[in-house]
Amino acid sequence: MSEHAPQPPRAAEAPVAEERFGVRLTDPYAWLRDPDWRAAMLDPGRLQAPIREHLEAENAYAEAVLEPVRDLRHRLFEELRARIKEDDASVPEPDGPYAYYVRFREGGQHPVVCRCPRDGGGAEQVLLDGDALAAGEAYFDLGDWAHSDDHRYLAYAVDTSGAEAYTIRLRDLASGLELPDRLEQARGDFVWATDGGTLLYTTLDEEHRPRWVYRHRLGDDPAADTLVYEETDPGFFVGLDRTESRRFLLIETHDHTTSEVHAGPAEDPAAGFRCLMPRERGVEYEVTDNGGEWLIRTNREAEDFRIVRAPLERPEPAQFQELIPHRPGVLIHAMHLFRGYLVRLESEDALPRIVIRRLADGTEHTVAFEEEAYALGIAGGLEYDTTTLRFSYASLTTPERVYDYDMESRTRLLRKEQEIPSGHDPSAYVARRIHATAPDGERVPISLLYRADQPPGQETPVLLSGYGAYGISQPAAFSPHRLSLVDRGFAFAIAHVRGGTERGYRWYEAGKLERKPNTFSDYIACAEHLIDAGYTGPGRIIVHGGSAGGMLVGAVLNQRPAYFGAAVADVPFVDVLNTMSDPTLPLTPPEWPEWGNPIEDEQAFRTILGYSPYENVRRQAYPPILVTAGVSDPRVTYWEPAKWVARLRALKTDDSPLLLKTNMSAGHAGPGGRFDFLKEVALRFAFVLWVFGRA
């Protein structure tokens, strides 16, 4: 950068030091954490002045550096917007006399929730207008919404801070009027009882963890709501569900490796809940009811899960009867029950499939697809007594398609295909599945996308995305956004590294706790393979990831900075050691099974210290880096990326751009409006194009 370029802000140092397990730790940028961060998360205007000034200075610096691509950002935004069908609508979901759906109006930022008569012969009824609800709000997110069984009322959750603290509101659909009931400080999930007048919902404690389940009766004062369940272990989060038959309400409590389910009758929510199987460390399970028995998906004695049957009154392991046996390497991700069929979503070697089992005779068949890499999703549906399964299909080249599949006749009906108004020809692109070899010999899948008329070579920039945590797989799904890079001569790739479940549950186990470094060495192996196989060249790879994937970005930049030509880290989890050492933060106790507890466990401490991006910044050259953050983020608090950037500024030995863009009125997911979100995508792409001289 020239001497006339904008100068980056310098963060003041106020070191905080401690000694643990014989290691002296110094945190020079701890001052960036607001002492009253919970209040600031819910109301960003309460952020301490010096911290706010620093973040705003970083934002101003980023804008100044990117001034040469202002017009490009605008063009990219318009290009991205042109690929979105602005007046889009979901396929209506039938339930009794109505069909429910969500649509967007042209120019609208937020969803409009509607219903119409099931037979399609009547007028549309607008149940919620997201654009109207969002008016005047700096941030708005419409979370879950659901109608009562009698179709009289609608419950819906709204977040106006980005901190994922929702208010649940209720509306009378007959009159269109709001009820005075307001259920505050809620997680945002809820379930209706069958009486149509009772709602169960979860609320957050002062650490922002879902801890309590309450029962609310419409019209009652929420302050008098009945406590149904309290979770006393700070490492467990509480959620709610309802079985497909609608017979049972479920309270589900879990961390990342252990779960416990409590069930109660939906027709009598005051009757109480009973624990089906007490939690047992490392055992996960979920349930649904089928007549006089439970169907249970569990990893008990089944690393990649199995499905068993057990009596409603005695679902203990001694009563298990095998329904779908465990098959190593074939991970059962989910199940969905209909009156006559059990549907499961499973994967093998990073490829998903849908398997349908007729319960009457046990016959099974698979819904098959032929592309090298693709993504599948089970939409299930609102109805239980039906032979119709709704599912979605997409690939790197194929926009999402929604099908209704008749499980009896085995025929599928295309209900919707994602429209790209500006045009899209799948045959103009090539999607491939290749493999890299990790240092320990494991084969790491890579999904690769490029234009057919621009085969990649040594000069091709490749945006290589990675995540690798919590057992979350990165699907090889379609995104219209990434075409803005691919159409400009870039390639796009996904590194399916360990820590996800692409190759079974063992793939997850091999990328967590003391084996977490496998995630980073897998990613580096993918980068090396892309270079060695001639898909790109050294310094032509853009390392990209968000949240826990942002940790990956920081770790591999510290280890192999010369491999990469640029980096984009979205709300990156980069202050791992300090965050996992603070049990007052929202996610810390629940995530000790994922990362380890560095307060009490020396091995966990030393493992995390060995890769945590913030602690491992060193005096070396780094490529150009763009970092994003959200001041209301409860998952990756804003000070993590702010501290990381400050330390990088102090230690890196190059003059490559290092930019931090903090959203001052949003959280982990970025802006709430769909077009505001596109502006952030345009920012990332403009940065990458600028770095590689394609602006």
What is the CATH superfamily label of the domain at 58-82 and 430-691? Alpha/Beta hydrolase fold, catalytic domain
The CATH class name of the domain at 58-82 and 430-691 reads Alpha Beta
What percent strand?
Answer: 25-35%
What is the overall silhouette?
globular
In DSSP terms (H or I, runs of 4 or more residues), the helix count works out at 13
- Give a short account of the largest sheet: 8 strands, mixed
Oligomer: single chain
The stretches of 5 or more residues where confidence is low (pLDDT under 50) are: none
Structural class: alpha+beta
Tell me the span between the first and last alpha carbons.
Answer: 17 Å
Give the CATH architecture of the domain at 58-82 and 430-691: 3-Layer(aba) Sandwich
Q: Helical proportion?
A: 10-25%
Strand tally, please? Answer: 37
The largest beta-sheet arranges its strands as 30-31-33-32-34-35-36-37
Mean pLDDT: 96
Radius of gyration: 25 Å
| The CATH topology of the domain at 58-82 and 430-691 | Rossmann fold
What does it look like?
It is a single chain. The model has no long low-confidence stretch (mean pLDDT 96). This protein starts with 15 loop residues before the first strand and ends with a helix. Among the domains are: 58-82 and 430-691, Alpha/Beta hydrolase fold, catalytic domain (Rossmann fold, 3-Layer(aba) Sandwich); 137-283, Prolyl oligopeptidase, N-terminal domain (Methylamine Dehydrogenase, Chain H, 7 Propeller). An 8-stranded mixed beta sheet has the order 30-31-33-32-34-35-36-37, with helices on both faces. Strands 7-8-9-10-11-12-13 form a 7-stranded antiparallel beta sheet, with no helix packed on it. A 4-stranded antiparallel beta sheet has the order 3-4-5-6. The chain has 695 residues and is an alpha+beta fold.
